[in-house]
Amino acid sequence: MDEIDHAVEQRPSEVGAGGGPATAGLAEGPPYVYAVGRIEPRFPTSGIEKEFAQVAGRTGTEGLTDRQVLHSVLAEPGNRYLVRHLTWVLTIEGLETYLLVPRDPMDMNLLVESVRSAPRPIDVDVVIGVLGPVAAGEASGGLAVPLVVFDQLYSFDVDGLIAAIPRPESIAEDQFTAAAEELYTRLMQLADNAGATDEHRALNYLAVRYPAIYARAAEAYAGESTLTAVEVRPSRLSGARRIVDVIFTFRHRRTDVLDAYFVRVDVTEMFPYLVTKLSPYYYR
Fold it and tell me: What whole-number distance in Å separates Cα of residue 169 and Cα of residue 190?
């Protein structure tokens, strides 16, 4: 059993209810979401599904897969009404987690762009917005999951993310790719990450926006160290703003010497941002 998957359990005095790091003393803010998963369009009713089938039947679909037909029909501007009537579900680790609603109707385009004509397991969608109530009514398609009113949504694949990360010259390309993929996967699996708590929002922000953590992990692996824990703690700088420290701890495989690094993230507002770059961390 990987140590990192249970890092939150290693320091009970610093863990709050539900297994996440304690956040006592931090000011409460709006229920922001910074989630990483996969967006799936679904037909909420049989009537919408029949309407889609009629539209697809009037479109040239010879030789196309079902997914290619879905992409082709929804991408057509004249079919935008179908986009509005679909249920857009964000799944995280295969679980239906949120129903997505754009704050601005123009952002329906972002939902359409998330529909790949040839989806792959490494496809990723990032959703940034505000958590709403549990969905109800016909439009939810029978799903009892919370709504997220999103302000930003972007899609990429893990290969593209890793390819865009500057690679340390001392690390071979294949070695760096393997290290980056492992770190990304572990960050996404930590503590059932739904992107709705300060610690999860910080982790997801770092996973998709801060390449230095991948370079540090690759260098540690090259130096015979293993990643043993990722912890998120309220920063001592927290006051009027909510700031967390994300700590990455590595252990040398032969000597058992611990080496820790941290990055400080402000999670007060909808869009987290970096306060302190990756630096050595010393446990007190």
Answer: 30
- Tokens 């929804």, residue? 74
Q: Which residues contact 265 (CB under 8 A, 6 or more apart)?
A: 202, 205, 206, 243, 244, 245, 246, 272, 273, 274, 275
Which residues, 6 or more positions from 104, have their beta carbon under 8 angstroms from its beta carbon? none
pLDDT one-digit tens code per residue, 15-34: 333 333 334 444 456 799 99
Instruction: Please classify residue 50 by burial: count the beta carbons closer than 10 Å to its beta carbon, then call 0-12 exposed, 13-18 middle and 19+ buried.
Output: exposed
Q: Running DSSP on this structure, what letter comes out for residue 22?
A: P
CA contacts within 13 A on the Cβ side of 269: 5
Closest CA to 230 of 270, 278, 163: 278
Q: pLDDT value at position 208? A: 93
Whether the pTM exceeds 0.85: the reply is no
Q: What tokens does 263 get?
A: 């990055």
Q: Could you count the other beta carbons within 10 Å of the beta carbon of residue 115?
A: 21
